[in-house]
Amino acid sequence: MNRRALSRHTASRAHAVYDPVSGTCSMARAGHLAPVLVLPDGSGRVVDLPTGPPLGLDSLPFEAVDLDIPDGSVLALFTDGLVTSREGDFDEDLSDLQRALAQPARSLYALCDSVLASMCTQPRTDDVALLLARTKRLSEDQVADWAVPPDPAAVATIRKEVADRLAAWHLEAAAFVAELAVSELVTNAIRYGAEPIRLRLIRERSLICEVSDASSTSPHLRRARTFDEGGRGLFMVAQLTRRWGIRSSMTGRTIRAEQQLDELVP
Predict the structure, then answer these.
(1) Helices and strands counted in the chain (H then E)
(2) pLDDT for residue 86
(3) Residues 75/135, Cβ–Cβ less than 8 Å
(4) How many degrees, rounded to 5, is the angle at CA 144 between CA 240 and CA 69?
(5) Are 62 and 28 in contact (CB under 8 A)?
(6) 44-49: which pairs have CB atoms within 8 A and are 24 or more residues apart?
(7) In this structure, how many other beta carbons lie within 10 angstroms of the beta carbon of residue 264?
(8) What is the structure's pLDDT at 126?
(9) Which of 41, 202, 211 lies closest to 137 in space, CA to CA?
(10) Burial, 129: exposed, middle or buried (Cβ in 10 Å; 0-12, 13-18, 19+)?
(11) Which residues contact 18 (CB under 8 A, 6 or more apart)?
(12) Amino acid 93: pLDDT
């Protein structure tokens, strides 16, 4: 969640990446309020995150915290306008927010409405934003994982195993694009990355291909010129998939490409 600019050249941000396979969430903040986590039993707490400087104020790296979050928990990210009223106390408003988030609701949309209604009973001097996410882990049969040998000859074998897994998932219609994405991302990891290299397929509402390696560099999307021998792989992946992205971590990087399944599966 990005906050409006604190000055002409700075802004605050809270950042969270949830892994539905492992159930872990990596979070960091830059001059922003820490998120609130509400567990399935209704207990809530402010996540203990290191306070980083606002974006644009310092070039120091931001420290991230990894948490194991139970299924069905609710993570709330919000701007300070939600917990800063004209006459209220910040700590008291924060406690009120935790209690409001713990109330039962038929959906996250309904919970957002009830939280805003209970918190914004007085005029606010600042803008208000609230973002809620409920955690849900994937089952084992929705995930396939491979260790990739650092050998270009392994790409053909990996591609065949991906095709077999897609057939077992009855996703043959997604195979052409998925195999192309796997070939390009795995090849790039072998050529330019560092060991260990892993490939992961995730089947949910979309089909996600993730290739991780220990490199700290990020590839750049570019258009190859007519006589260039390279530079087309990532561009093709970006054109054929719904979206793609790069995520950095303390152990390396993960490049992912996502296909929308509802356009392929009746």
Answers:
(1) 5, 13
(2) 59
(3) yes
(4) 100
(5) yes
(6) 44/98, 44/99, 44/101, 44/102, 45/98, 46/94, 46/98
(7) 14
(8) 76
(9) 202
(10) middle
(11) 24, 25, 69, 75, 133, 135
(12) 86
Residue 118 to residues 82, 98, 99, 173, Cα–Cα distance (Å): 10, 11, 10, 48
Q: Strands (DSSP E) along 117-180, which ranges?
A: 130-134, 143-148
Give tens-digit pLDDT for 93-109.
889 999 999 999 999 99
Q: Whole-angstrom Cα distance, residue 124 to residue 84?
A: 7
Task: Return the structure tokens found at 226.
Answer: 């007519």
Q: Are 98 and 38 in contact (CB under 8 A)?
A: yes
Alpha-carbon span 171 to 183, nearest angstrom: 18
User: Which regions in the chain score pLDDT beneath 50?
Assistant: 224, 226-229, 266
Q: What is the distance between the alpha carbons of residues 64 and 106, in angstroms, rounded to a whole number?
A: 32
CB 33 within 8 A of CB 75: no
**Residue 234 near residue 183, CB atoms below 8 Å:** no
* 126 secondary structure, DSSP code: S
And the tokens for 242?
């719904």
- 73, 40 contact by CB (below 8 A): yes
Residue 245's H or E segment, with its range, is strand 243-249
- Phi, psi dihedrals of residue 94, rounded to the nearest 5°: -65, -40
Question: Residue-wise over 96-121: b if at least 16 C-beta within 10 A, else e?
Answer: bbbebbbeebeeeeebbeebeeebee
* Residue pLDDT, tens place only, 66-98: 999 999 999 999 998 888 765 667 788 889 999
How far apart (Å, rounded) are the C-alpha atoms in residues 148 and 214? 12
